[in-house]
Fold:
Amino acid sequence: MRLPDTLKPWRAWLDWFDPELAGAVGDLLLRLHPMLGAFRMRAQSGQVEPEGIDDLRRRGSYDRLLLSEWALADAAPDEFDRRAAGGEHLFLNPKLVAREVDALTVAVFDSGPAQLGAARLAHVALWILLAQRAQAAKARFAWGVLGRPGEVHDADSPQMLKRLLSARTLTPGGALAAKDAADDAQELPRKRFEREWAEHLDALAPVCGERWSIGAAEPGLGLGHRVSIRRDDPGALDIAIAARQARRDIRLALPEPSLSARLLGGHFEALERVQGAPVGGGKLSLKQPPLISFDGRSVAVPLLGDTAVIVYRLPRDGQAPCAPKVSRWSKSKWMLAATLIDRHFCGVMPGESSLELWQMSDFNPRSTRAGTPPLPPPEELDTVPGRARWLPCALIRGGHSGSRLFVLSGSGHLLSWTRMAQGIDYSVVARGVSAIGYHDQGGIVYLAYSEHNLSVVEYRGGVFKQVDREAVAEPPRKALLCGRRRNGLLRLGYALEQPVGGQGGERSSVWRVFSRERDRSSDYETMLPADWKVEGLALAPTTGVHLIALRPDRRALVSIGAAGRTTLYESAYAITAVTVAADCDVVALIDQQGRLVVLRDQGRSVLVYTGGGDG
Structure:
């Protein structure tokens, strides 16, 4: 992850977060850091102890006299006496070291009702700031919760930071508890907890140097340094940091709500690794984009230099990963088009006069009287071997209209094979088609250009229906489509690229992006340099349709919406192939190391299947 120089001191902690969250936390760190003041604690010195030999001296205790001098006493006693009288004897001088006792700073966080919610964001930032501050001074940082005096924890992992966030209690009790304590002439819970903490810290060896009380606004300095946090403004926190030397106040702007919610929920780790090399020791292909099933539960990737694919079943909600499945076909055949239905991989293989619809039982001539699917003419389907990428296809099974296979040819023809009672019917559904995708298990949508119009057509239940149309001046150079049908309602997004000329040639492209849902429609335009590569479209839950683009250095995927850009994933290696699911929130990519990376939940969940090796 790339960080500006100003955030480099906290890199070890910011690496725990994905890039988007790291930026939000980094802003909090930069605002709060100057408020802490200088680190005044020094490591204490313990007793002086010898450690090795420093040098030789002419004075010293005779128990440290050199052995060569004792040898002289045996061989020449008179010379030994003369050297002693003249102060010429040599003694070992030990190196004396004052052992440093570990310096210690402790922060005690109030996890009571007054500090729930946004105040915990300040806790996160202060936890990181104090940990780095102690490390830079060669000290140790530990933390605890106000309501649990004496329980001290290290601050050495993201799990410990999550533990702080998960620590919630209904005590010290707020205003009601304070009133009850006052009525009964009792000590306030907060004061009692701070007193018990002070007694515990006084008893530590070594004595704790810096002590921080972090929580609701209270008079006094607490354990030594008081950080008072309150929220009077919905979008900001008012923070006061008081010590004996000074008091500093700041109004701290909060991150946007979606980022704050992820931080408070402890969902700041973006990476969930699933180790394991492909079955049989093969390597994943770097050129063929992965296939994603229509429900987003499985991903298939071909093996490099082999007639086989490996299918990964993606775990959900903390489930253990399933063992991958391998499908192989004859080495004498080659795959022209392919699709993935759940974990079932199937495809189209051309022959001399017909097509083999591999692993499509509905079209199997051995089990039905359907016969073999006819081979289209070359102008409709180019079946010359050597294609770097499989053609898109979709299989709609069963129904009263029969099973139907769609293949989008390289020339923009949408081809169809339908299993009928009397055989297999072949037809050209449409020309000028630029994109096709599932919108659920029983239907597809496709995008076609004709007579200055770009049309979105849905196929479902044997019926083709135009669901949207947009007038365009000329055929788009590239067009993309996404669609999702849930509970009977179809949500659509599509985009088209229009090149913009510049001095010396083409410099950039304008992308027009359209969103359609029920009776709501929206669109926007965005301009991208020509070296950006748009890989697909994604339907965001609340912010419309986003372009998913590959950065020019091929090391990051960026989500581009009407409101701005967000980095979905940043890779240490060049990204070689990308697939964006048309009907669900899943993106799959292959990097230069042969790793499969799967992004879900708008990039917040990342699965990395390692072990592919160099390709």
Remarks:
- The mean pLDDT is 84.
- The chain is about 15% helix and 40% strand.
- Residues 38 and 370 are 83 Å apart (CA to CA).
